[in-house]
Amino acid sequence: QAKERLQALLPVNTPVSMRTVDTDRYGRTVAELFSQGRNINLSLVESGHAVAYRQYLSNCDRDAYLDAEAIAQQNQLAFWSLANPVMPWDFRRQ
Q1: Which of 38, 33, 39 is nearest to 19 (CA)?
Q2: What Å distances lie between residue 42 and 5, 27, 35, 77, CA to CA?
Q3: Contact, 60 vs 32, CB < 8 A?
Q4: How far is the C-alpha of 86 from the C-alpha of 30, rounded, in Å?
Q5: Region label for 48, one of left (φ > 0), alpha (ψ between -120 and 50) or beta (otherwise)
Q6: Residues 52, 68: contact at Cβ < 8 Å?
Q7: Complete DSSP assignment for 33-87
Q8: Angstrom distance (rounded) from CA 69 to CA 24
Q9: Which of 14, 57, 76, 85 could serve as 81's disulfide partner, Cβ 3.0–4.6 Å?
Q10: Could you tell me the end-to-end alpha-carbon distance of the chain, in angstroms, rounded to an integer?
Q11: Cα separation of 82 and 54, whole Å?
Q12: What is the CB neighbour count within 10 angstroms for residue 81?
């Protein structure tokens, strides 16, 4: 579902800009993506197709991400509609 939502937000060849936020422990870039003035990361959190990674929010609008996640959870959107949602970082640890 998240992949489909992302494809809907960013069809092939849609120009994007990237704002680097951090680097993870594997040396990968953590970034926010923007298209036509829209924060794609935040859009995915708002729709319940992504969760806010708290450890990377210090260089972002933390409140916007946490508020969006709380609303998506409250409205049981996408990920939050699952009976027992497992946070991505917990899933990977398993």
Answers
A1: 33
A2: 12, 23, 12, 14
A3: yes
A4: 21
A5: left
A6: yes
A7: EEETTEEHHHHHHHTTSS---GGG-TTS-HHHHHHHHHHHHHTT-GGGGSSS---
A8: 22
A9: 76
A10: 22
A11: 21
A12: 13
Q: Measured between alpha carbons, how far is 31 from 29 in angstroms, rounded to an integer?
A: 6
Q: What is the CA radius of gyration of the chain?
A: 14
The amino acid sitting at 20 is: T
**Residue matched to tokens 């319940």:** 48
Q: Report DSSP state, residue 6.
A: H
* 7 three-class SS: helix
One pLDDT digit (tens) per residue for the chain, 94 residues: 999 999 999 999 999 999 999 999 999 999 999 999 999 999 999 999 999 999 999 999 999 999 999 999 999 999 999 999 999 999 999 9
| Residue of 50, 72, 73 lying closest to 60 (CA atoms) | 50
